[in-house]
Structure formats: C-alpha cells, structure tokens
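Appendix B. Raw example, untouched.
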Amino acid sequence: MSVTPLWTPDAMMAAMRAKANGVLPEAITGLSIDSRTIAPGEAYFAIKGDVHDGHAFVAAALKAGAALAVVEAAQRDKFAVDAPLLIVDDVLAGLVDLAHAARARLGGQVIAVTGSVGKTSTKEALRHVLRAQGETHASAASFNNHWGVPLSLARCPASVRFAVFEIGMNHAGEIDALVRMVRPHVAIITTVEPVHLEFFAGIEAIADAKAEIFEGVESGGAVVLNRDNSQFARLQRRAKKLGVSRIVSFGADKKSDARLLDVSLHAACSAVHANILGLEVTYKLGMPGRHMAMNSLAVLAAASLAGADLALAALALSQLEPAAGRGVRRTLEVASGEATLIDESYNANPASMAAALNVLGQAVIGPQGRRIAVLGDMLELGPTSAELHRSLNEAIKANHIDLVYCCGPLMRNLWDALSTGKRGGYADSAASLEAQAVGAIRAGDAIMIKGSLGSKMKTIVQALEKRFPGKAALDEAAV
C-alpha cells in the first residue's frame, strides 16, 4: 500500500519560492531540523539556532538518508555541486512559508492552545481524545515557539480531521505572529498566571499577551477561557472586541459553560463529574490533580466545538498519561521495598509548582514513608522572584510535605523560610544536590522533583532511576 507523501519537492519549491539543485526525490515523507534524528526520506531544514547553524550538519543529514536539504543561498557553495537541495534566501522564513501553505490546504478542524500553565498537557490530552475519532496531528513535545510552530504546522498532513498546535511566549507580540499562521477554529487559554514576570509589568500584561491568540481565530470560531481565573473578564472583553463569535468558559464557577460539578482526587487519577456545554458526563481522568481535572473541561469543550463526540472523548480520558517530565510516575526498587518517583522536572513556575505539591500531597506512601519535594529554581520571575519562591512554603505546609530539598540561588529563599524539621538539604545546583537526594530515599517514600528547565532537575531524576531501577507506577484506582 502506497503512503501519501507529506510534500512533493515541487510543492515545497512553490511555497518557499525555492530553487532546486541536484536530483530531487518524488516525495518527502517528513521534515526535520535535527540531523541526529532525521529519518530516511525526510527534508532537512538548516535552521540557524542560538548555538548552532544547521548548515554545519547538512552533510550529516544527507548521509543519514535525508531526501534533500533546505539551505540558504549565501551558503550554497559549502555543499557538493550535485547535492539534493532547495535553496532559499532564509531557511526559517522558508519554513514559515511552508507552514502557511500547509494551513491553506488543511480541511480539518484546527485547535490552538496557550496559557501560563498546562499548555503541553492540554495539547497532549486533545491529541489523545481526538485521535480515537479521526486522523489527528499535534505539535511534538513543546514545539511552541518561532520555529516550533511553523515546523509543527508544516509537518501536518493535508488529510487530517483534527490538528492541535501549542503556542507559547515569554514576550508580548510573540503569539500574534504564530496564531496568524495557525488560524485556529478553536483557541484555548488554559490560565493566566504570574510567569515570565521578568519581561512583563504584571499579570494584566501577561493576559494581554495571551489574548493575542484571539487575533488569529477563524471567522465563526470559538475561544475557551478559564472562568475561575482572575483575568477571565479581561480576556472575555478582548475576545468580544476582536469579534470572536463564541466565547466558552470552563471552571467550577456556576456560570461556566463547561462546569466542574464534582471531582474525587486520587493518588494517580481523578473521577470527574461535569456539565460540558449542556451535557452531563462522568469520567475517569488518568492523571492526578485538580488542575488536570480543570483542564480536562477545556479539552472536552474544545473537542465538542471541533465536532468530536463528547461521550467518546470523555471515555478516552481514562487512558490519558502524563508527558515526559510532567508527572510521569515510576516505582523505584529501594532497600526493603519500593518508593514512588514523580517526575515533574520539565519546567516550573509558581502555579505549576503549587499544583505539583498538591499532587505530592495526594500521593500514597508506606507506613514509614515520607512525602519529599526536591525543588529547583523557578526562572524568569523578575523582581518578585524571591517572594514567589518563599511563598511556596504555604503549599508545602498545606499539603503536609515531610521533607524538602532545594537547589539554586533562588530556591535559597524557600530554604530559609522552611521550618527546621522540613529541611532535607540544600545545594547551589542540581548536580551538587544529586547525592543528597538519592541518599535520602527509603521504602514507602514518594518523591517529587520539579524546577525550571534551566535548573536541570532532570539530572536528579536520572540519578534516581539509575540507582534504583524500577518500573512504571501502577494506577491503583484501575486495578
């Protein structure tokens, strides 16, 4: 059975106004910007990054089986005369042009997701529930920036029924350009929280930047907003001003269109009773935490707005699993028993840190077990950073966390605020804290690790997994 190509070289040339060089294949099966992981038949885009220039890896990509490489005209002479190339003035601009062409040929429903917290988890939940009802494409990992969005869009097959794209930002103006490329039929803002404060005057400015997503919503489209959030009214006003035809709210607020009626929180899942756009549904959510239950309302509302079957979408949520670094659980085989590792190491801000501590507070522990938090710096919080780190102590006390390990100069503020009995250990970096955290674990413990990506908390996760080989933790509610 033949596979429909993602692109033909002719279509790529037309979209990017490119010149051809060498013998080109009949079809392109995929797109990549990483020569290390490129698959045979894919086109390699030689993007200039902050650290590396992709042109340095064109030869490696072609040797690995790339069907062709997209390069800039100024660097054409670096490659063999007969190399299979598409030559453009600027590679990233060419990728953006290809993304616009991909969007123009799409006949399916397009959903865009942004928000201070929960973008990736919500995008992955949408991918999960929609793919059971039709061909679905979604952004890989957290590809939500100036190169990730066009790459995700350009990778989208024309045949999909649903396409889901994550859109991120840390400066005003970023979302606007990206959403005009995506042109969603449905746009979600999960929440607005005090993150990236280094680049914004306050939470209202963050809300205004998130509201840029309304600029690209298709005529007759809808937006899904968190009614429980302090910025709901501000976002609602902006959406109305821009002529968005349908504004759907979600939350526990009685006025919510997708309303949480009841939730039962368990260590590894939740049971949710909700009213989604006038229809009551009860479902199991395969991920723990009230924040996940709230975002599941947005998922079901958006799926319904995009034409998916609500009952099937709710049923699919029972099999939802966390993305890497966002709550993945493993059982660690330690001396005389087992411990639970909760990997939240991908990123952190005050809202997501509080949510993760709440999940840790729900975790099941053994008779002698403790709930242990290993926390790294939260970055880009601006002048209020010290206080925001100190204030995590309230969530630690509220969730009865037994022991806290901190690393990084910003987390020193939390460390100094902790009561003596909760102090596990402190170090300047994750690498320096590693031995303390690994040495602390004993049977019955639940340990949660979280910090901003730049704090490199993944190193502690990897050290624990290496020292205590284990297995994926079971969802006790499913047994």
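End of appendix B.
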